[in-house]
Amino acid sequence: xxxxxxxxxxxxxxxxxxxxxxxxxxxxxxxxxxxxxxxxxxxxxxxxxxxxxxxxxxxxxxxxxxxxxxxxxxxxxxxxxxxxxxxxxxxxxxxxxxxxxxxxxxxxxxxxxxxxxxxxxxxxxxxxxxxxxxxxxxxxxxxxxxxxxxxxxxxxxxxxxxxxxxxxxxxxxxxxxxxxxxxxxxxxxxxxxxxxxxxxxxxxxxxxxxxxxxxxxxxxxxxxxxxxxxxxxxxxxxxxxxxxxxxxxxxxxxxxxxxxxxxxxxxxxxxxxxxxxxxxxxxxxxxxxxxxxxxxxxxxxxxxxxxxxxxxxxxxxxxxxxxxxxxxxxxxxxxxxxxxxxxxxxxxxxxxxxxxxxxxxxxxxxxxxxxxxxxxxxxxxxxxxxxxxxxxxxxxxxxxxxxxxxxxxxxxxxxxxxxxxxxxxxxxxxxxxxxxxxxxxxxxxxxxxxxxxxxxxxxxxxxxxxxxxxxxxxxxxxxxxxxxxxxxxxxxxxxxxxxxxx
Length: 502
Prior knowledge:
With 502 residues, the protein is of the alpha+beta class. Helix content is 61%, strand content 11%. The strands form 3 sheets. It has a 4-stranded antiparallel beta sheet with strand order 5-8-7-6. A hairpin with a 2-residue loop joins strand 3 and strand 4. Helix 3 packs across helix 4, helix 8 packs antiparallel against helix 9 and helix 11 packs antiparallel against helix 12. The protein starts with a helix and ends with a strand.
């Protein structure tokens, strides 16, 4: 029964996330089905839109992200006309070629409208639609410039890596797009992938060092490959790290000064924390690679001297004597062996030392003191512990009131909290972030949360209530009230009503 329940729940509640991942592929398959038979009486029927789309995406990534250039329509037109002549042997009049380039551009942009991807949502039991764009536009100094969207970048990177850039560079290209489009939650996932890649490279560094210690020839090949795929991109990666960090700081300043993205501020802080961790680990990778370079040079140098070490080959010497017909030189081999001193002498003075030397009753081994590495606690981990501790206090007070009352307002809850924790609690940002997390869902059921938490707050609830029978059967819903709550000098929030479900 439990397995069937888990299966059904995975099918229903994971479907929405799967559709969100699939949506970035939708424009490609829509465009790849397009035929040019109806355009200009089929004059350009040999064109293949799927290939053209991938080429245009690659062109925009190169210009926007690697060269950091703005792309005007004239830049696109020059690129696409060269591609059509080279790959499809298009030979038409200048005006016809320009009309064809504009026709293709309008199809990729979907005439300025987003591609609409519809699917069935089994949770709400109704059809929903997702909007996907491939190319965005903006006006700068009276001129229109175009850029590729984050969905299109992510789609292209899923199909194949670009040139021979490192995975960290590629992921950071996508990260910059996600930050610019205010998708901070998606950016956090990208940074975590960067952290995983850095960890993989640290492991690979140790593997290269082990190969060098076993076989210097194989080790040199592995070391050169590691340098070409990792070390050569450090400078580019550091630039992208700093660029993305500036974008995050800019979003934070704008959000705090103009009260923008208030609901996303916590996601921005989380993204900044993950990026700082990635920068720290990337710096460690640079130090480890420098250490690898020094050790590799030392191993290779010793191997070279080992090959040059003086040695005597009797076979080669005898062959040379036979070719020169010089039997008299055989004495060079025999004479050194005839003059060996094989007699052993013992100094009489050593007898006194042997008689006066006291032996130990038992040999004692050298004591080794194991040094335990000091565990470093990052600032963001301290912040996370503080937030979780405060959330647990708020949760206890909230659920105690739900047990006591069937219905109450946010104002009543704040009065209870200030009575227990003091008036300054309403000046604490954790209280308002707790409310933001709480209002992500309209209803909560403790038994379902313990089985499968869906949000950050539910993860904390699961750890808090798991095994606690006091709140095991509680379910409640949250409704918005018409009035507002004003905390002087701090914030104005809408009132809420909490109602227990029987």
